[in-house]
Automatic annotation (TrEMBL):
Domain Urocanase N-terminal residues, every copy: 7-131
Name of the encoding gene: hutU_3
Pfam families recorded: Urocanase, Urocanase_C, Urocanase_N
Subcellular location: Cytoplasm
Name of the protein in question: Urocanate hydratase
Location of the Urocanase C-terminal domain: 346-540
Length: 548
């Protein structure tokens, strides 16, 4: 029943009182649309059990509140449940949201799941609770940039003829095989749930499905020999396959993993269990389940370390696999690095980060018109043009059509202005939402991911995302959310999301100019404060104000 009803309105007609609330209603429903969410029936958007609303009653109340919200009121969401509406100002955010926040002493899985079972909180991942999820595409460029950086650093700027072994074809993990083939390489991606593989074959993220490592290796060797990109989905348990690789003496060039292991109980399947058996054990004997999952994980991470010893480039892809293996008792789990400190941080130091825009009209033509305008206006930027051409060719839209693009300090506000102008002139058929991932330099504090290995030791300082959120709210964002536990799990991160709407008005333009300067600006300032020379140079180059 619910499956068929969750779908965003499209077109020009408003179902709310203004475009700001309409934008949030459409994004909220889009993130729960069964074509977009991993498990719409359970309100799970992605990333293990990352939800957009606490429960169905809360979901319905959010829809009702948004439809009735005036343009001088602000709705408060407490961990996926609407709790209050207050009169504020037209310039204020229409929605402020705080998700999964607990007093730090109790910020651990055990206490959190007790609170969750009591119905007091919800796990919101990152873009799930901030209603900015747009499917796999949202993380595609970060994954692409990581693979690209490895190709530049180690393999003459291409992954042609190179093999990547990874796992997990969920909401985020599915970006991996396509990112590898976009860089010319061959990918074997292990996924235990065959239905996820079938979904990714339809959406173009994988090319072929196999059931044994032998079959995968035959296909991979042939493709490597011919230097032909190929994404092979192997149905199986990641730990089993990685151990088998070690036994066979096969060393892929690159090894990583994106199962939802940050959540051992709900996101990681122990070896030897079918999905049904896992669901049964999880329900009936969670302690036994965790014990089995830990044993599996230790074998999994040990084999990653062994493949590293044999010459593979190995890294943690943002799911805290090292931290979980360490917690389970494998002391050498931190032998390989995290992807952000190793490959993406130099981009953060330049203020470059993930921006996304979503056509609230539901009309793919709006996104294609924006693609053309961006190619025309940023023709000299090889990085942006290459990306837009790639995604135009590879990405199918499902749910509201959207684009992501990593943009620097100037580009972000320039593109915001371009979008708003095109809405104002009527070139686009309706307003456009502009939002971003939580994964940036100042927007997430996560010592096993975004802030791992900061030169000044500020890895666990969580003031930056709070300051970013407060400033976004002061500068005209339509929605600001502050969250805990995204990506790497409860106790391991604090982060913030921001959404604005380009409705073609002068007010929207002013807000966008501020907001789209603040995010990359604070990114640079946070890294300069930590001692990065590149970020300090950017401060001087851009004339940013940093009192100390
Ligand atoms: P998801 O829950 O949608 O998907 C996880 C997938 O892993 C599922 O399809 C599941 O069947 C599969 N899986 C679980 N155990 C397995 C096993 N033992 N062997 C093989 N497959 C197994 O999660 P997601 O949204 O894809 O996120 C994956 C992880 O990445 C999460 O930990 C998430 O927090 C993290 N993450 C990474 C980034 C990034 O930029 N790299 C960003 C956000 C989140």
């Amino acid at each position: 029943m619910l499956q068929s009803t969750i779908q965003s309105p499209i077109g020009k007609e408003l179902s709310c009182k203004n475009w700001e609330t309409e934008c949030l209603l459409r994004l909220f429903l889009n993130s729960l649309d069964p074509r977009v969410a991993e498990n719409s029936e359970e309100l799970i958007v992605y990333g293990g059990r990352g939800k957009a609303a606490r429960n169905k009653k809360a979901m319905e109340a959010i829809i009702r509140e948004l439809k009735n919200l005036d343009n001088d009121h602000t709705l408060l969401i407490q961990s996926g449940k609407p709790v209050a509406t207050f009169r504020t100002f037209p310039f204020s955010p229409r929605v402020l949201s705080s998700t999964a926040m607990v007093v730090p002493k109790w910020a651990n899985d055990e206490d959190f799941s007790i609170l969750e079972k009591k119905g007091l909180t919800m796990y919101g991942q990152a873009t799930a609770a901030s209603w900015a999820y747009i499917g796999v595409q949202g993380v595609l460029q970060a994954t692409f940039e990581t693979m690209n950086e490895i190709a530049n650093r180690y393999f003459q700027s291409t992954l042609k003829g190179k093999l990547v072994l990874t796992s997990g074809l969920g909401g985020m993990g599915s970006a991996q095989p396509l990112s590898v083939t976009m860089n010319g390489g061959v990918c074997i991606v292990v996924e235990v749930d065959e239905s996820k593989i079938d979904k990714r074959l339809v959406n173009n993220y994988c090319d072929v499905k196999v059931h044994t490592l032998e079959e995968a290796l035959v296909l991979a060797e042939e493709a490597m020999e011919l230097e032909r990109p190929l994404a092979i989905a192997l149905c199986g348990n990641a730990a089993d396959v990685y151990c088998e690789m070690v036994k066979k003496g096969i060393t892929p060039h690159i090894v990583t993993d994106q199962t939802a292991v940050h959540d051992m109980l709900n996101g990681y399947i122990p070896s030897g269990l079918t999905l049904d058996q896992a669901a049964f054990l999880r329900n009936k004997k969670p302690e036994k389940y965790i014990k089995m999952a830990e044993e599996t994980l230790i074998a999994h991470v040990k084999s990653m370390c062994e493949l590293q010893n044999r010459g593979a480039i190995v890294f943690d892809y943002g799911n805290n696999i090292r931290g979980q293996a360490f917690k389970a008792g494998f002391e050498k789990a931190f032998s390989f690095p995290g992807f952000i400190s190793e490959y993406l941080r130099p981009l953060y130091c330049e203020g470059r980060g993930p921006c996304r825009w979503i056509a609230l009209s539901g009309n793919p033509g709006d996104i294609y018109k924006l693609d053309e305008a961006i190619l025309a206006n940023f023709g000299s930027d090889e990085r942006i043009c290459r990306w837009i051409k790639f995604v135009q060719e590879k990405i199918y839209f499902y749910g509201l059509p959207a684009r992501t693009c990593w943009l620097n300090y100037h580009e972000r506000s320039q593109i915001g202005e371009l979008i708003n102008n095109m809405v104002a002139s009527g070139e686009l058929s309706a307003p456009v939402a502009i939002t971003r991932d939580h994964s940036e330099g100042s927007t997430m504090a996560a010592p096993f991911r975004e802030t791992e290995g900061m030169p000044d030791g500020s890895d666990i300082i969580a003031d930056w995302p709070i300051l970013t959120g407060l400033l976004n709210a002061s500068a005209g964002a339509t929605m600001v959310s502050i969250q805990h536990g995204g990506g790497v799990g409860i106790g391991n991160s604090i982060h913030t999301g921001m959404t604005a709407v380009a409705d073609g008005s002068l007010d929207a333009l002013k807000k966008l100019k501020n907001l789209l300067t603040i995010d990359p600006g604070l990114n640079i300032i946070r890294h300069a404060d930590a001692g990065y020379i590149k970020a300090n140079n950017m401060i001087r180059e851009l004339g940013l104000k940093k009192p100390l």
